[in-house]
Structure prediction request, 215 residues.
Amino acid sequence: MITDTYKDKGARKQLVRELKTKGIYDDKVLAAMLKIPRHFFMHKDFRHHAYLDKAFRIGEGQTISQPFTVAYQTQLLHIEKNETVLEIGTGSGYQASVLLELGANLTTIERHEPLHIEAQKVLKYLGYHANFICGDGSLGYAQNAPYDKIIVTAGAPVLPKALIEQLKVGGILIIPIGDSKTQKMHSIIKTGKATFEDIELNDFKFVPLIGEQAW
Ligand code: SAM
Prediction:
C-alpha cells in the first residue's frame, strides 16, 4: 500500500516553492498541488522521483505531465467551484485530481483503456469523483456539453472544431498546438457562438493527441 509520509509532504512543499519561482502565482492551484500526493499516480519505479519537476513514463508510451505544466495549464483555466470541465487525456489522473480539488465538475477522456482504468482506481482511492470516459477526446464529449472550461493535455496539430463547439460562450479552452517536436500553449476564449479569441503562449513538448480531429 502507498502512504503519504512526512518526507513526501516535505518534498511536495519544496516542489510548490519551486513552482512559485518558475512563475506560478495562483494560490488555489499551489494549495491543490501541495495537498495531492503525486507519487500515488506514478509507476513504482519512478515514485521516489515524484516531487521532481519532471514528466515520467506511466505505460502505453504515455507520460504524467511535468508539475510545472500541470500548474501552468490549470492556472490559465481559472477554475471556479462547480464549473463543468472537460479534460482530454486522463493519463495518470494527476491533472484530473488537481481540477477536482479546485471544485470542477469533471469529465475526463483517455484513449488507452489500461490508463483509463488505473486512473479511476487512484482517484477513487483518494476520494475524488469524476465522469471517466474511454475514447477519442479530439471529438470532445457532446453528452456532457457545453463546458465552462476545456483542457487538452496532449499536443494537437490543429484546433479540434468539436472542442470549440462544445465550449460555452465566455468559456476557456487551453490546448497545446504545434508539430511533433514542440507545441505552443493556446488560451482560447469563446467570445460568441461562432467567434473566439486565440492567445498564443509558451512552448511545451507533449505526447501527441491522436484521433479523428488530431494526429
Ligand atoms: N493529464 C495527464 C496526467 O495528469 O497524467 C497527462 C497525460 S499525457 C501527457 C496525455 C494523455 O493523452 C495520454 O495518456 C494519451 O493517451 C492521451 N490521449 C492522446 N490522444 C487522446 C485522445 N484523442 N483522446 C483521449 N486521450 C488522448
Remarks:
- The two ends are 38 Å apart (CA to CA).
